């Protein structure tokens, strides 16, 4: 992989051609990818509509929370596309990657293990790729550190960080009045003698009963899951008459995703929470980036909360075509690419990539100009480097690992 000579010449202006000719090329050395699992069936209580009169929910082909066959096939297609990128960059050669080429580690949830296997089917078709994870029933501190970590948790400090970041739960609710009114229409509680007023439902954020986490109540917490189900129904390829009981549209599904994204402003994005939710995984990734013996491609298969927390720790916000800003979609990945130049200096490029809703809904094979959306993310701490480097999102490796280790608690 090289920097475009023509682009560099434009950046440097007069005399730029000579500078560009002397510019060293960049070679991809390794890639770390943190994925959200693929399309799953809704969780048991996710819809939050049991107290309402409504038509039956659509039938799903798998049990609650499990990866669907369509979700697996979408991940396989993403993996096949990713394999081509690795081969074109010179990172991989040969049909079956070995342990020095590829490692996959997933959370212990069945949907993440299945997602890792589906992605591997595309990355290495016909090859035996180990899918690493802890034993069934164990909690993995890389993905769920607050559930088992002995690290101190200061509830007052967590609440203060959330208040400063969000402006408080009342302000959060006010920002999402339009979305709450729209979802009231979808679930059918905006009609009748006593139409619902979701924005008027009291909201509260407090320390969880176990003292190890935060608990949010109110309309955003209650109906964020409903918004997520609408997205899952659409991605699963259900007829529009079944998506939100026929009372929504593709554009509305995207808009309502903002309710789901708002959860992460409480649980994952504030400095206090991000440092703890992403801490152990960030430390593992930092060690992987520095380790010359690490696999060329290291994949972690987790959840939207993991992606939201790690991106917040790095000072960037994920966004993907067709989804609400800040809402990591199924099959989306936060990527960290390590490159070295001809002088041996090592750089990092951060990016986010995801198949858009239409590509997943219709299981579009990726070829030619059809590809997952790929967006380079510029780290705020690297904005002072030279313009030619900044334009491509490159940042010194030492700065990225320093940022992770300085901010992580784990």
Topology diagram in text:
Elements: H1 5-12, H2 16-22, E1 26-36, H3 69-88, E2 102-106, H4 110-123, E3 131-132, H5 145-148, H6 155-166, H7 169-175, H8 177-187, E4 204-207, E5 214-217, H9 219-235, H10 250-267, H11 271-277, H12 279-290, E6 297-302, H13 304-314, E7 333-341, E8 346-354, H14 357-361, E9 373-377, H15 387-390, E10 394-396, H16 397-407
Parallel strand pairs: 1-6, 2-3, 2-6
Antiparallel strand pairs: 1-7, 4-5, 7-8, 8-9, 8-10
Helix pairs in contact: 1-2, 3-4, 8-10, 9-10, 11-13, 12-16
Tell me what you see in this structure.
Keywords: Hydrolase, Signal. Belongs to the histidine acid phosphatase family. This is Histidine-type phosphatase. Residues 1-22 form the signal peptide. This protein is α/β, with parallel strands linked by helices and 410 residues long. The protein has two domains: 5-44 and 65-149 and 274-407, 3-Layer(aba) Sandwich (Rossmann fold), CATH 3.40.50.1240; 155-268, 3-Layer(aba) Sandwich (Rossmann fold). It is 41% helix and 14% strand. It is built from 16 helices and ten strands. It has helices at residues 5-12, 16-22, 69-88, 110-123, 145-148, 155-166, 169-175, 177-187, 219-235, 250-267, 271-277, 279-290, 304-314, 357-361, 387-390, 397-407, and strands spanning 26-36, 102-106, 131-132, 204-207, 214-217, 297-302, 333-341, 346-354, 373-377, 394-396. The strands form two sheets. Strands 1, 2, 3, 6, 7, 8, 9 and 10 form an eight-stranded mixed beta sheet that branches. Helix 8 crosses helix 10 (250-267) and helix 12 (279-290) runs antiparallel to helix 16 (397-407). The protein is globular and about 70 Å long. The two termini are 34 Å apart.
């Amino acid at each position: 992989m090289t920097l475009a000579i023509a682009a560099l010449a434009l950046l440097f202006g007069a005399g730029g051609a000579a500078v560009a000719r002397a510019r060293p090329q960049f070679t991809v050395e390794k890639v770390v990818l943190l994925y959200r699992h693929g399309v799953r069936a809704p969780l048991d209580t996710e819809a939050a509509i049991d107290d309402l009169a409504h038509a039956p929910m659509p039938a799903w082909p798998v049990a609650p929370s499990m990866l669907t066959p369509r979700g697996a096939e979408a991940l396989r297609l993403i993996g096949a596309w990713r394999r081509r990128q690795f081969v074109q960059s010179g990172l991989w050669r040969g049909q079956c990657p070995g342990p020095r080429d590829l490692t996959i580690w997933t959370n212990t949830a069945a949907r993440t293990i299945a997602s890792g296997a589906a992605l591997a089917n595309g990355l290495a078709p016909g090859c035996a790729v180990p899918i690493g994870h802890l034993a069934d029933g164990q909690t993995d501190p890389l993905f769920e550190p607050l559930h088992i970590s002995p690290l101190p948790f200061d509830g007052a400090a967590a609440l203060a960080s959330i208040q400063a970041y969000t402006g408080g739960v009342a302000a959060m609710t006010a920002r999402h009045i339009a979305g709450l009114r729209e979802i009231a229409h979808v679930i059918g509680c905006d009609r009748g003698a006593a139409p619902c007023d979701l924005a008027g439902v009291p909201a509260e954020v407090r320390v969880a009963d176990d003292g190890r986490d935060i608990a949010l109540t109110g309309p955003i917490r209650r109906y964020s899951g409903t918004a997520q189900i609408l997205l899952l129904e659409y991605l699963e390829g259900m007829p529009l008459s079944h998506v939100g009981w026929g009372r929504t549209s593709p554009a509305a599904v995207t808009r309502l995703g903002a309710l789901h994204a708002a959860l992460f402003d409480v649980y994952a994005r504030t400095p206090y929470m991000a440092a703890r939710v992403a801490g152990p995984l960030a430390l593992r990734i930092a060690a992987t980036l520095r380790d010359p013996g690490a696999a060329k491609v290291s994949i972690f298969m987790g959840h939207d909360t993991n992606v939201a927390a790690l991106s917040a720790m790095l000072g960037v916000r994920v966004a993907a075509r067709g989804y609400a800003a800040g809402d990591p979609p199924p099959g989306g990945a936060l990527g960290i690419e390590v490159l070295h130049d001809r002088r041996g200096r090592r750089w990092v490029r951060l990016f986010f990539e995801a198949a858009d809703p239409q590509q997943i809904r219709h299981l579009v094979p990726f070829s030619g100009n059809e590809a997952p959306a790929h967006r380079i993310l510029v780290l705020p701490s690297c904005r002072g480097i030279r313009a030619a480097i900044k334009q491509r999102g490159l940042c010194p490796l030492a700065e990225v690992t320093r940022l992770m280790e300085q901010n992580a608690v784990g």
